[in-house]
Amino acid sequence: MKRILIIGATSAIATACARLWATQGCDFFLVARKADKLHITAADLKARGAKTVTLHEMDAMHFADHPKMLIDCLTALGQIDVALIAHGTLPDQKACEQDVGIMLQEFMTNSASVIALLTLLARQFEVQRCGSLAVISSVAGDRGRPSNYLYGSAKAAVSTFCEGLQARLFKAGVHVMTIKPGFVATPMTQGLSLPAPLIAQPEQVARRIIGGIERRSTTLYAPGFWALIMLVIRSIPQPLFKRLDL
């Protein structure tokens, strides 16, 4: 039985992960912005076998609220065996190019708020000297593309931060995993023109995430074929890459 903290718990990928964990009779501390969605998620997890589900309403952009969230989590769970950070947005690249305010807001949501939570949780995991800390980044962070380089740069910051955190926490016996999904069929991508053969379902990604945590993977592409795709994209010489419409 695991004690699991999920931040961004009502997102499609997080919900799919939680449903799989619920069948194992896990205890949950779920964090999200909207109380109504949290209650729906909690009822669903209990029906699937979750032992206990504690809810906490919080906007991850309210940095001052992070410490209380962690205190409440530890009060409910006692210890965190797995923490999954899964919140984020998919910015409108064109809007970010035209409005510095929008750009900063989106970068803070997808990068600074995640890094702030990782910093807070890392201290707790160091005290525990055990557990897994998993965070959803993106394949978009592997190389800046004109279609989404604001989102990509935010995710690149998260991925680089996690790489350093992995080396730091490894010495304390703590596992850190960076999750890099490709295209996933979620409300965030609804309406986008995406290549159908490359679109994964949240349940498919969730199975890979849970398997990666069990194997103590450090970097996890989801689905796995994205590792090859991004290897090719990273290998394209810059003089050619800047002429491509990606």
Question: What would you note in describing this structure?
Answer:
This protein is of the alpha/beta class and 246 residues long. The protein contains 9 helices and 7 strands. The chain has helices at residues 12-22, 35-47, 66-77, 93-98, 100-128, 149-170, 202-215, 226-235, 238-241; strands at 3-7, 27-32, 52-57, 82-85, 132-136, 175-181, 219-222. A 7-stranded parallel beta sheet has the order 3-2-1-4-5-6-7, with helices on both faces. Helix 1 (12-22) links the parallel strand 1 (3-7) and strand 2 (27-32). Helix 1 (12-22) crosses helix 7 and helix 5 packs parallel to helix 6.
Largest sheet: 7 strands, parallel
At the first level of CATH, what is the class? Alpha Beta
User: What's the helix count?
Assistant: 9
Count structural domains: 1
Helices and strands, in order, run as EHEHEHEHHEHEHEHH
Which residues sit in consecutive blocks of at least 5 with pLDDT less than 50?
none
For the CA atoms, what is the radius of gyration? 18 Å
Strand content: 15-25%
- Span from first to last CA? 44 Å
In short:
This protein is of the alpha/beta class and 246 residues long. It has helices at 12-22, 35-47, 66-77, 93-98, 100-128, 149-170, 202-215, 226-235, 238-241, and strands spanning 3-7, 27-32, 52-57, 82-85, 132-136, 175-181, 219-222.
